[in-house]
Amino acid sequence: MTNTNLGIDTVVSPEGSLEVLSQSEVNRLKSTSENGQYELLRGCALAVLNCGSHTDDSKAILEQNRNFDIEVLQQDRGVKLKLTQAPASAFVEGQMIRGIREHLSSVLRDIVYVSNEIEHNDRFDLQDSEGITNAIFHILRNSGTLRANEKPSIVVCWGGHSISREEYNYTKEAGHEMGLRRLNICTGCGPGAMKGPMKGANLAHAKQRILDGRYLGISEPGIIAAESPNPIVNELVIMPDIEKRLEAFVRTGHGIVVFPGGAGTAEEILYLLGILLNPQNDDQPFPVIFTGPASSAEYWQQLDQFIGLTLGAKAQKRYRIIIDDPKQVAREMTAGIQRVEEFRRANHDSFYFNWRLKISPEFQQPFDPSHENMATLDINLNQETHKLAANLRRVFSGIVAGNVKATGITAIEQLGPFQINGAKEIMQPLDSLLQSFVQQQRMKLPGSKYNPCYEIAQQ
Amino acid sequence: MTNTNLGIDTVVSPEGSLEVLSQSEVNRLKSTSENGQYELLRGCALAVLNCGSHTDDSKAILEQNRNFDIEVLQQDRGVKLKLTQAPASAFVEGQMIRGIREHLSSVLRDIVYVSNEIEHNDRFDLQDSEGITNAIFHILRNSGTLRANEKPSIVVCWGGHSISREEYNYTKEAGHEMGLRRLNICTGCGPGAMKGPMKGANLAHAKQRILDGRYLGISEPGIIAAESPNPIVNELVIMPDIEKRLEAFVRTGHGIVVFPGGAGTAEEILYLLGILLNPQNDDQPFPVIFTGPASSAEYWQQLDQFIGLTLGAKAQKRYRIIIDDPKQVAREMTAGIQRVEEFRRANHDSFYFNWRLKISPEFQQPFDPSHENMATLDINLNQETHKLAANLRRVFSGIVAGNVKATGITAIEQLGPFQINGAKEIMQPLDSLLQSFVQQQRMKLPGSKYNPCYEIAQQ
Amino acid sequence: MTNTNLGIDTVVSPEGSLEVLSQSEVNRLKSTSENGQYELLRGCALAVLNCGSHTDDSKAILEQNRNFDIEVLQQDRGVKLKLTQAPASAFVEGQMIRGIREHLSSVLRDIVYVSNEIEHNDRFDLQDSEGITNAIFHILRNSGTLRANEKPSIVVCWGGHSISREEYNYTKEAGHEMGLRRLNICTGCGPGAMKGPMKGANLAHAKQRILDGRYLGISEPGIIAAESPNPIVNELVIMPDIEKRLEAFVRTGHGIVVFPGGAGTAEEILYLLGILLNPQNDDQPFPVIFTGPASSAEYWQQLDQFIGLTLGAKAQKRYRIIIDDPKQVAREMTAGIQRVEEFRRANHDSFYFNWRLKISPEFQQPFDPSHENMATLDINLNQETHKLAANLRRVFSGIVAGNVKATGITAIEQLGPFQINGAKEIMQPLDSLLQSFVQQQRMKLPGSKYNPCYEIAQQ
Amino acid sequence: MTNTNLGIDTVVSPEGSLEVLSQSEVNRLKSTSENGQYELLRGCALAVLNCGSHTDDSKAILEQNRNFDIEVLQQDRGVKLKLTQAPASAFVEGQMIRGIREHLSSVLRDIVYVSNEIEHNDRFDLQDSEGITNAIFHILRNSGTLRANEKPSIVVCWGGHSISREEYNYTKEAGHEMGLRRLNICTGCGPGAMKGPMKGANLAHAKQRILDGRYLGISEPGIIAAESPNPIVNELVIMPDIEKRLEAFVRTGHGIVVFPGGAGTAEEILYLLGILLNPQNDDQPFPVIFTGPASSAEYWQQLDQFIGLTLGAKAQKRYRIIIDDPKQVAREMTAGIQRVEEFRRANHDSFYFNWRLKISPEFQQPFDPSHENMATLDINLNQETHKLAANLRRVFSGIVAGNVKATGITAIEQLGPFQINGAKEIMQPLDSLLQSFVQQQRMKLPGSKYNPCYEIAQQ
Fold first, then answer.
1. How far apart are CA A194 and CA A205, in angstroms?
2. C22: nearest CB among D117, D137, D148
3. What is the ipTM of this complex?
4. D423 neighbors D381 (Cβ within 8 angstroms)
5. Of A456, B103, C257, C344, which cross-links B48 as Cys (Cβ 3.0–4.6 Å)?
6. How close does chain B come to C231, measured CA to CA in Å?
7. Which positions in chain D have a beta carbon within 8 angstroms of at least one beta carbon in chain A?
């Protein structure tokens, strides 16, 4: 699918979620003032429309589409969107692909809700752990993601957006086997390991005549441009920031499969293990599987060692590594989710939201990857394990920002690479892990030479 | 259908709208403290369950069911409701009628939403006209009532809950003719003229194979016990008070048919004409039809005269009286709604909510029908017409409260009838109008002797 | 609903079942030759369109609509029907009621199928008991009436087309109670006891949010004009003759409720009891309830006595009489159908067609009620009971024909009343039974003086 | 997907089409006598269950599964199928894939219908051209394939079951582009070019939120084992023989896309062009596109030359060759189908069945590829072009049988290769065409050495 240079001017109906807005909501979406949401809307809408593009450089996307404009119109049959110079890849013969129209509607819905009901509203205390979780619950509920009367079935799939063809095919096969077993897929949107499992599951659901298969994408405004949702995604939620996005994954998913990936995948793994290490979560079943084709065996060995070194054997017990056996991945995930169902039933916990999972504030508070914050992260073994996990998570979060997020790229251009300091016994394996990510082209989509956005400052 | 004395203890799933609640929302529903919602929930739930009963005395219903209890439980598949001593008429062989389960769910949804998002929230300024309208919009949107992509089709039907068999059959026929023409029905819930049009339309929709016919009921906590929703109602909204309920009618309905009724119907007519008299609404098409069987001709003549006397010829031009011709009612309503559609289209107004209708604050601010407030209402011809309409509306609103609302009945028991003062030239026709309501048994359901809750103090 | 005199010319799409016809099928529907189906199609189509009319005189209907014409057109999107001078009551503002369009489609489907696949086809031996049953099975299957995966729920309701308002309301209440219990209704189409239960069940299904409630009408070309299907009927089947229609009732229904009626109802009762008296059916559960309002107690007592006298106590054990208790009717029918389900399950019998029921040939062979055949029926106690039942069934069948069927009415006009001969001990109670039908206006719709089409020739 | 050796014993419900059978129909399915259908049912059922296997050798499949057995059971909720030693690849964790259950149901439906209503029935004269077409119409109608009210959208995709990965990916892309444009896919079932377009369209339909996308497979008992339907196929029809299957393609499809293939594809092309050469079909729009990736350019050139030589320039005008441009394929097909729609509309022809297409008897009469029949085919230029097309079609048809059909393989084993005689100027290019098919591995699935089942006997 080639992205032609010519943009398209059109008026479309958002489809599905939120065609009904009040006049003040419409005005706010149009406003570029401080509380206005225009820039946010424009950025997310562009990301959604740009799903056919083959770049993960958010800044470049914004620049290429500097003439893109979006305007919200109030019409007799509801809200319409007027688009100017929209990316052509979102259209087929001048008609916007229906799945993308739904994504636009989701973007609108979440921006309106988060701004009006969460941020500019004294109801949720976003400094407080419970307040944050409550806000996440409300955003997800408003999006229709939380469904009573459905048994646990959501498998979160993590992994790189830039992976080899062999790894990609493996993610499709794993998704196919899970889909045949009636499991549903949740990913962070984007290409690679976020798209493969959905394609596989979609095909399997067709074979099983499952018309209501769920392909849930959870994104956030900073990353969505780099990882724009594939139109297969039939439920899209835009969380306000990366930390709430990660919390949304672990509270809605009933199990997690991790495929090979780069810095973002490492961030997700450290976040997850950091939480599961919390003694209050010891009793909770939470199936986690690391998997990939035969060629990924070494990759997983390396990561396993790094986890053993930094987080210890308790963390290693929380996941299983399965190499080159997608059927077995699907079987173990099915069995694991069965245990989750039994546990929730026994505790009268809801199936659709894991209230019981304890997430401590260091995993919830937004981390701003400024050069200063990156340089002063405390990376050594003389601290509680979950604190180290949190700080390591921040390291990788910063690298993701420097690689693909617009603000991060700009900061690196201006100030040079992040300086990462820490204890030698961690820095060395961290360095070799990152180098292997670079060599395996996991940091960026192929086709561009990767200039590291970080330097490991070894003592 | 006899309402057996034995209540039923059970646990049910609310169905449809809101099975997903946060923990703090559940706690608030359980709480009897000031901000708690337990009493409100219990009262509305009882009203909904009591739909098989044949009384309109809210106070008596609460007393008869003093052992009724409701508790919200959090379960693995969502929220459940534990009911103790629930009215047996809501059940068939021990299973709650599905429509009633949906009503319970609607009650829960609206209580949670109004309390959390409207009342204890600084977002909506309920002292301000725009703020009130905005709050009404949000309540209706949250209930799913506002649907983009649907053409105007909602006919609000007003009329008495206590009407003759002949009048009742006429409301069914009118509903049948409207249903055959694919119109949908909105009423205030309850028996009589609120039920007949829905029954007729439901049958007609079956003949036309319309599976998604809308039977919209809009109630409020004070009246719902006296006018509990018939299970045909497939969309139920509980507005916070009578004024917001009236505004919800005129902003969602595309036309209004009024059947004969008593004080409540008079209140509705005065509210509607008071608004339509506003010069800012002069250009808006808004079809209003007063109708009934041949025997109601004199009734409508009397009301028409009272309106002519008090609100003048301009008000009389806003409605048409059609006697004994349900097919003609349906035809004119269809044509009128067609004009509404064209007007909205020409003005880019939404079909689902009439933002443009100007409602001045005296029709929006809640009126408390205390004895003092009732006695000091300013009823004379030396004021602007729409102010007189507003005050006359309050007279009838107070009489409704004294007749059927629990607080009103208690006040009358303690302090005697309301005293209504005003200019002689209005008081006399008002008196005869009210007396005719009494004689025609329009004030209360038959079977009980009616003791007027008011005295016309003539000067 | 007044049936205006002006007919309507239009082209409509039949809806639902059979828009796809081959060219030879279309040609046959147009042909008036011997094997052509034009007259049959015209007669049945007229009956279906005439559902708003208030007469049961088939001959009069044909005469009133002598200018009515129907033509089958082949169009790009399927078959269309061109109607000339169609009864206006089938239309609302020029648009045919959708339910009636579906009925037209059903008529077309069954005429095409019966003619091509049953009658002019050597596959089914219609002289043979098994062949007849097999043909009935195929007609019903082709109509979509036989549904696997549905539990037994079909209650056949029999009773008069001409009944009092009190009886009619009772049939609605019984239907309502059955509908609340998720039972479905099957009748012979037409007004009175064939319409009431469907209206009641339709309302109850709306309350229970059952969108796929079944209102099954089974008719035949001879009777359909007199008992045209109400548009509520959402499955209409036209069987080739009265005997196959009766067999379709007892093989698809899971239980039978009989309301008061006239000759047709008596015919149905004698048919049913005649079959249930067959010793091969002794083990089969088959719930049969005779019911009506308090005022019908004497009616049922009289019929019960007649059955006792003619068919004996064994027949009387096959039904229960319940007076003035619609809730109890629904409860017993639910319990009875539960026993049917268990019996079928135990015997691996299908739920949707009662293959096991033994029907002997005298109940299957079409009876032509000519004057000669009527005069020579063998009515005396010196024969096997089921043979007497079969002959008594024929007596009533002939009277129905003389009352409302076009051919029967013509024959009576030409040759005078049927002469019915038989043993005195049967003739006298038969005479008084028939006289009471006349007095109670059960023979014909009110408004016309009833001239008996028979004479009891007592020896 | 590995096909384990262990078969599975189970009882399943066929799903979708035909759970309702009469007792005599069930008995016939069980019978192995002459008119019995057991062997046919067993063979087709095995083919459907064997969809995960990677062989196209029908005889080998039957031998490998010699213990497979199928029995039809009559149960309370309809017909069930008892399977013994069923191929494991049809199951996921012991549960049969739903799509395959539907295929079983389709097999049952078509075997019952064809046998009872077409073959052992004097209604259709299968010696007559019109009689054959009528029979095809009835089989397709009975299967639910002919849908009124749907606009033309069915693209028949032909091409090889054994194609390269590059060609396969191209068929997926073409299917994807057609699916994005809301076109539906019909193929002959099986792998390769019959599966790729469906997979692509299925993904595209998911993106367009089309839940009712059609993936129509048309097979026949002789070929189904070699080309078993992929579970994506959501409408499966088993025609009685190859000629009726080909006629079903051209009467239901609105356009045809041909991908590279072997003998079967050549058969299909010659059949199609032979018909389109009929002067009575000159006026009919019928879009035909030959396409493939860049590497297929030479393949199409060779075929184009062969067609030019044998059928002439008029035949060449009936198709367009598009190389390496799936988007253009989809665009031209959309435009071509638009012309078909306009033509049918102008002529009042049905959209769902092309009655107007003239097919002469030599393309309709079943051809038995015995050694004698093959050896005596008249292949020379001294005859009418459409007769030559018919004979060339038979050549390729015989080669397909010798390659993959059980009876053909057996005959070749016993009697050696078919001898194909004909005029030198045709035999030489035919020989080189066939040899290129062999070299390109288009005759059989890779992995087996191909032994030609034919010899070109050059004069």
1. 17
2. D137
3. 0.90
4. yes
5. B103
6. 5
7. 92-93, 97-99, 102, 180-181, 199, 202-203, 206-211, 231-232, 234, 331, 334
**Is the CATH code 3.30.1850.10 the one for domain D2-121?**
yes
Instruction: DSSP for B355-393, please give it.
Output: TT----GGGTS-----HHHHHT---SSSS-HHHHHHHHH
Closest of B401, B340, B338 to residue B369, by C-alpha: B401
- Min Cα separation D137/chain C (Å): 7
Non-local CB neighbours of A308 within 8 Å, separated by 6+ positions = A315, A316
Nearest to C25 by CA among D138, D142, D114: D138
Per-residue pLDDT of C31-83, as tens digits, reads 877 677 899 999 999 999 988 777 777 778 888 898 999 998 887 777 889 99
Neighbouring subunits of B (3+ Cβ pairs under 8 A): A, C
Please report the sign of the dihedral spanned by the C-alpha atoms of residue D361, residue D362, residue D367, residue D370.
positive
Paired tokens of D183? 């076109």
Average pLDDT rounded to a whole number, residues C127-149: 92
Where does residue C68 rank: exposed (0-12), middle (13-18), buried (19+ CB within 10 A)?
buried
Q: Which residues of A touch D202 (CB under 8 A)?
A: 202-203, 206
Residue ranges matching CATH 3.30.1850.10 in chain B = 2-121
Q: For the purposes of burial, counting CB atoms within 10 Å of the CB of C95, is it exposed (0-12), middle (13-18) or buried (19 or more)?
A: middle
Nearest one of B278, B218, B230 to B50, comparing CA atoms: B230
pLDDT at C61: 82
Delimit the CATH 3.40.50.450 region(s) of chain A.
147-346
The pLDDT of residue D417 is above 90: yes
The neighbours of chain C, by the rule of 3 or more Cβ pairs under 8 Å, are: B, D
Distance from CA of B180 to the nearest CA of C (A): 7
CB contacts, 8 Å: B25 with chain A? none
Give which of B207, B215, B228 to mutate to test C binding, by max C Cβ within 10 Å.
B207
Yes or no: say if D264 and D161 are a contact pair by the CB < 8 Å rule. yes
CA distance B344 to chain A (A): 6
Alpha-carbon gap, residue B144 to B136, rounded angstroms: 13
CA distance C195 to A66: 67
How many CA atoms are closer than 13 Å to the CA of A420, on its beta-carbon side? 26
Q: Express as a percent the part of chain D with pLDDT over 90.
A: 72
Reply yes or no on whether the pLDDT at C17 is more than 70: no
Q: What residue type is B149 in one-letter code?
A: N
B contacts of A131 (beta carbons < 8 Å): none
Contacts of B232 in chain C (CB under 8 A): 203, 206-207
- The C-alpha atoms of residue D378 and residue B448 are separated, in whole angstroms, by 101
How far apart are the C-alpha atoms of D402 and D379, rounded to whole Å?
A: 19
Residue A297 has pLDDT above 70, yes or no: yes
pLDDT in tens, D382-393: 999 999 999 999
pLDDT in tens, D16-30: 656 678 888 888 888
For domain D147-346, give its CATH number from 3.40.50.450, 1.10.10.10, 3.40.190.10, 3.40.50.720.
Answer: 3.40.50.450
d(CA C20, nearest CA chain D) in Å: 6
Q: CB count, 10 Å around CB of B338?
A: 15
